[in-house]
Amino acid sequence: MGTLIMKKNITYLIILSTPVCSEEWKASVLKNIEALVGSCVVVPCSFSHPKESLPTSRMRGLWHHSRDMKHLIYYEDSTMVMENFRGRTRLLGELGKGNCSLEIKEIKDHDNGPFCFRIELARTGTDTGTKDKFSFKEDCVTLQMLTNPKDPELTYKDPVEGHPFSITCFATHTCPTFRPKLKWNTGTEVQITERHRELHPGFWEMSSVLSFVPTVNDDHKEVTCTAQFNGEKMSTAKMTLYVKRMENYNHIIIPVAVAIGLVAIFGGLCFLMMKKYSMFNRLSRLSRR
């Protein structure tokens, strides 16, 4: 799995680092992305064109519905954007560097798409009738709606009494602007470490590591990790602690030590008595002579 993710990342980085100019109009867009209703989603997108290199200020990027180019979901002039998308979309990358990534927030259950990217090369600020424009209708994205977020995942090893123990909670999401918040149902005597990373284009992971030293009192306690997503939607993952107790051999060691001590004392007394008796016999023989 790690190798596959690495290959996807490397491929996407190569695409983004490719010069904007090429022999033809090309775009790379994820075809399908899961989107949580009420949250947001980032659509990774990169493109290249056969014309001369131009700065971002001389390019116009549009996103439209595949059925009709006039149905804009993003444009720099928001008055031209469909009302139900107005204020909910923005470009994240620089068009001059071939990055056309799109963010859609406050996802509605009807925001399925497909949505396509269109680029227009405007060599001057007033060049509104340029012929150098292209809609990438073969490279559109479809959003697969999720009514409820997926449950987080927990990873851990068996806890042992008196030994450091940690549980990691993972929650995946599609929008780094609004990361899910991970919360634990634990007390204050714990340490929590959080981390956020991109797994592959369009897919991120938030993780939280809960660390503490379990005691006998923690045995059979339930630990819960709650993920709160943008839009106030939540999901949980639970586990029960089964704390392995440290082996206590005092009930064996103490009696054995006492017994060994008594044997040693008794043996010492016997030795002294035997030695004293032997010396008495010698003295008796000498007195008889």
Automatic annotation (TrEMBL):
Protein's recorded name: Ig-like domain-containing protein
Gene3D superfamilies: Immunoglobulins (2.60.40.10)
Keyword Membrane recorded: yes
UniProt keyword terms in alphabetical order: Membrane, Transmembrane, Transmembrane helix
TM regions (residue ranges): 252-274
Any coiled-coil regions, as ranges: none
PANTHER family named in the record: MYELIN-ASSOCIATED GLYCOPROTEIN-LIKE-RELATED (PTHR46484:SF7), SI:CH211-171H4.5-RELATED (PTHR46484)
Domain Ig-like, chain residue ranges per copy: 152-240
PROSITE patterns linked to this entry: IG_LIKE (PS50835)
